[in-house]
Amino acid sequence: MTFPTAAFPADVPELGDGDVRLRAHCETDLPALVEQCLDPETLAWTTIPAGYGEEEGRSFLSVLVPQGWRTGAERTFAVEATRPDGTRGYAGSVALRDKGDGRAAVGFVSHPALRGRGVMSTALGLLLDHAFDDLGLETVIWWAMRGNWASRKVAWRCGFTFGGTVRRWLAEHGDYQDAWVATVHRDDPRQPRGPWWSLPRLEAERVTVRPLVAADDPRIVEAANDPTLQRWMPSFPAPYTAQHATEFRALVDDAAAAGAAFSWAIADAKTDLLLGAVAVPRRTDTSAEIGYWLHPEARGHGYVRDAVDAVVAHVFAPRDHGGIGALRAYVRVDELNRDSLAVAYACGFEMAGTERAGLVRRDGTFADMLVLERVNPLIDF
Ligand SMILES: CC(C)(COP(=O)(O)OP(=O)(O)OC[C@H]1O[C@@H](n2cnc3c(N)ncnc32)[C@H](O)[C@@H]1OP(=O)(O)O)[C@@H](O)C(=O)NCCC(=O)NCCS
């Protein structure tokens, strides 16, 4: 079956930037479009239904897309770029959905063979130029299911400002999913509005300090229910469940992306088994707090000292070398927690003072917190 010529609106502008071009969809896009819609990542992060086939593809190209252009409700472009085999062709689709009053939402999917090459970032940049410069829009919004890091990076690269996580908002996969939201305004520079923070892997002799993964959850739950840990970490829920661990990891990712806090697993360098966790739970432009805990089986071997040393080195490393660039690292220790104090001293922290009633213990009493610090040796104060 061929498409009626009228199916493809004639007034779709062509927008180009180097190798990447936005244009009207055409019939030859169909095979790649269907491939893209059967891809597991596409299915995981979009409303495209499972079992997408040629019929759905034809209907999208010949009915939905032209209808969107005719009514102005949704301007969908095909993205064209050079494929890995050197040929040019369909690389994905980007859409601008009218939300009224000078506002629109973006949607985008790229063909799996062209992902991770900057094609979608360029395509979205072109779409935003069109939205603001040609259509005169004021604000464009991006929504994604929480955890869609590839999409978030594309939005970040194009100048969107992250707005937060909206609980159970996107209706996808038969349920309401937590959603990320970000916006870009016509006056915003179309480039990143801050650094793209990430959690590096830090290698020490016996431990690896690495991002937390789902496989760590059972060990996190074991450790978090340990009575010693419960005593000194009053913010940990009791009892601590697998759901808490999953939620903890999601919050860790969000906080790291905002550059607000960083948490890593301390893992055995040989087996990768989780031994504990080390974190920068708070930071300012000049200082970074360090926190740590160990699984009960891992205590007494000096693992936490190795991990803290690695994290302090990262905290002190300049920002342009991938570090945090802090002038000062500090720990806050309950005055009764002798083991934690010993770790702080072993890691070279020196007593700086006492924070009166700095923590409410689980039994409701107030703890004076000992503050110990290390200053960045790379900086000439
Ligand atoms: C989201 C999507 C369109 C991105 O397309 P793309 O062509 O790969 O985009 P780009 O190459 O311009 O940028 C993707 C960036 O995300 C990064 N990325 C990919 N997966 C990532 C992850 N899990 N964590 C962090 N970054 C990730 C890539 O490395 C790349 O960054 P880099 O250029 O610094 O290396 C594509 O992954 C896709 O089609 N996914 C399925 C559909 C979808 O999620 N659509 C968006 C719905 S809101």
Can you walk through the features of this model?
- With 381 residues, the chain is α+β, with helices and mostly antiparallel strands.
- The chain folds into two domains: 5-185, Gcn5-related N-acetyltransferase (GNAT) (Aminopeptidase, 3-Layer(aba) Sandwich), CATH 3.40.630.30; 202-375, Aminopeptidase (3-Layer(aba) Sandwich), CATH 3.40.630.
- The protein has ten helices and 17 strands.
- The protein has helices at 30-38, 40-45, 54-71, 119-134, 149-157, 217-224, 227-232, 242-258, 303-316, 338-346; strands spanning 15-17, 20-23, 74-82, 88-100, 103-110, 139-145, 161-172, 175-185, 202-203, 207-210, 262-268, 274-280, 287-289, 291-294, 328-334, 350-360, 366-375.
- It has an eight-stranded mixed sheet, with helices on both faces. A five-stranded antiparallel sheet has the order 9-10-11-12-14, sandwiched between helices. A four-stranded mixed sheet has the order 13-15-17-16.
- Strand 1 and strand 2 form a beta hairpin.
- Helix 1 crosses helix 3 (54-71) and helix 6 packs across helix 8 (242-258).
- It is elongated, with a radius of gyration of 25 Å.
- 30% of the residues are buried.
- The model is unreliable at 1-6 (pLDDT under 50).
- The protein binds coenzyme A.
- The site of coenzyme A (COA) has 22 residues, from helix 2, strand 5, helix 4 and helix 5.
